[in-house]
Fold each of these.
Amino acid sequence: MATNRLVREAKLAKLPIAYVGRRMAGRGRRILGGSPGDIERDIQLRTAEHVFEVLGDLKGCAAKVGQMTAVYRSLLPFDAAGPEWAELAEAVGEAMGRLQDSVPPMLPALVHQVMAANFGPEWRSRFRVFEDRPAAAASLGQVHRGVWRDGREVAVKVMYPGARIAVESDLNMLRGVTGIIGAVMPGADVRAIVNMVCAIVGDELDYRREAAHQQVFADVYAGNERFSVPNVVECADEVLISEWIEGVPLGHLIASGTPDDRSRAGLAILEFVESGKERCGLLYSDIHPGNFLLLQDGRMGVVDFGACARVPENFRRIVFEIGDALYNGSHEDLEMALRTHGFVRPGQEFDVRELAEIVSPFLDVLLRKDFRLSPEWMREQVAAIAKIRLSNVFRQMTLPPELTVVSRAALTCMGVLCQLRTEGPIREEFLNWWPELAEVIRRYEARDTAPGVRRIPPMRAGGGRPGQ
């Protein structure tokens, strides 16, 4: 174990050295008349492949980075810089996205060792069938298919041996290479993404916690006509056994589904996340295509509850007061709400007008009865944000720690809905679970009809179909 870690640390240490070497070589090629654009793309592609190769050793942490990258990369405005950058983004995205599947499967003997350590030497007696070949990869382990002793088909999630010991070291190493990852993902806030991974991955190592959360959802959604959550069958420290559900992963729908099917799936995901907060008191925040399955009976299956968390007690109040300031208040009201709830530190200078301009386009989502989310729409917003010095205003702000999981859920949910090109009554579905915001919007719309009323922050001028 120690030897393996030293090898991985040595590989990571070479990343910045290799990157500097490529830069120096690039300067030489430019002196000899090489095209600066071609040289830059070559440097970035080589760095992307090197990062992929090295991070492939980081098992679950790398897989998490890959999962999140697969969502975020489709939303970044690379194409605004020209078609060559769009091609580069796709190549880099493919290299980073492969991290999800980069971990080699455990050999059967090692799987058996983990099962015996958790359930005793007679662990096979619990199963009628246990398939040694993994059916799927999990971020910190792998999933095997089996038949439980009572005849139920089950999914057996087995954690990689030593994962808990290795993950903390891996997270520290990931923090050390965010600058290099950023070099191959222009426009992405890689440090924020990696810090988010570091904040949540520890909870995902606690299978007993995950099992408890999953069963809460399974009980609440039992017999539901729209959603299916598998029951927990048994759980140990490093093994979680659930009922098996068969379905088509959401990624297939993103790639080849009809617009209507994609929109139905997007609205269903939004409904599940919002209804889960109300019905279970838990926020499901691991929102990426691999965790949603389309079942034959038309329902949506949901798996992997390792990243759930209790909703902060004052969350509804925070959303209401900031939302009311955005739609019905002044810049001063918005700044007061943000300072009151800890988004701006006491005494910190804060450009509230810049923030108002940044968030203004996003307010349209709750002002139109039918809205279309898409990667192009999100890229347009990100590009506009970049033009008004994103780094300045957000350096003045902070995220209250208790809202970390909420932030992750909001960003990843928006990302997946954009990937699906969700179109339709997004406003209605969201406000159905937020009566306080529904009242905010009602008052806004009533005020907007009065002559001389100025909306704050200012909305964008111009026509066109929303979301295009």
Amino acid sequence: MKKIGIIGSGIVAQTLGAGFIKHGYDVMLGTRNIDKLAAWQSEQGTKAKVGSFEEAAEFGKLLVLAVKGTVAKTALDLIGNFLLENKTIMDATNPIADQAPENGVLQFFTNQNESLMEQLQSAYPKANFVKAFSSVGSAKMVNPTFEIKPSMFICGNSNSAKEQVSAIVELFGWEVEDMGSAEAARAIEPLCMLWCIPGFLHNQWTHAFKLLK
């Protein structure tokens, strides 16, 4: 599992990619615009590779989906069933609509009874999706410095896939909170809305969630 394929080329993909490289992984970012990642690849060194979505999916023993929610299904469709079958896919996407926030509240294109991850899991039933890193901004994703260890909420249908993702979550400095099966993404994805409200209203973007016990 030391080879990670990341589907996406934006700030989340680049941040998580750099985090994996920091911890000794080889990483390939999949993109439709390879030139966009030239600076990132140069900065990250020999463990950083760039290719197409298909090449990243073939390269990675574990995959990370880090694209806009509106294009998540399209990105996976470009890869296809064969390269996704039996793969663990750490899903960092959120179903954020293209419309502007309302009083600081993001708008979603899903409803409360079906998450984006459930839609993707239904479209690719032989892949093992695990929701993670969807409820915090990119600046705090990898080994953040807080007074206490923050909580990362995950969910998915495969226990073995969740174990793989949990190991990464812990490596990246988070306490894992397993919320169960894919249906729990209906609750996890809206945490993105809650996380963003202080940012939109007060320009506060450096917080995280903690589940107190």
Amino acid sequence: METTTLPLELLRYPVGRYEAPPLYRSAFVKQSLTAIEALPANLRAAIKDLSDEQLDTPYRPGGWSLRQVVHHLADSHINTYSRFRLALTEDCPVVKPYEESSWAYLQDARWADPALSLQILESLHQRWIILLRSLCMEEWHRSYFHPQSGETYLFQAAGLYAWHGEHHVGHILSLRERMGW
């Protein structure tokens, strides 16, 4: 049982909210790539030795279970990898949004072994990092257009998805700490 009560904002955003930088900075991109590359191992460590009951515990009231969080990361990062490839091969393509909450309640996200999504993330991030490390400054300034959030440059998207991984690992680690797991 939880021993502490945290404000809802901290439960929702354990590493704070993401703020996209307006200008390209090589140090920011390098830091983002380091975080993207580290996500699969950090996620694996975060869920290590959790039971099915623990994996099926929501990270906050009204939030997804830890199992759903793991599967969400794979779903989200698959979509993002595709968006990067589209932005690199088309002129500011319009990308399709997806209903991430609906995806989180599909049967595979609710009940499948998180190891399946960890395998996806490990392979996906290995390939994604190869692509990201190959980009020149001009390519980091390519963009895509998301109907809900507008135009996003690839350097901003790299930061967003570095944050996204840390954000969800933060959900898991915060719950583990609160529950004494």
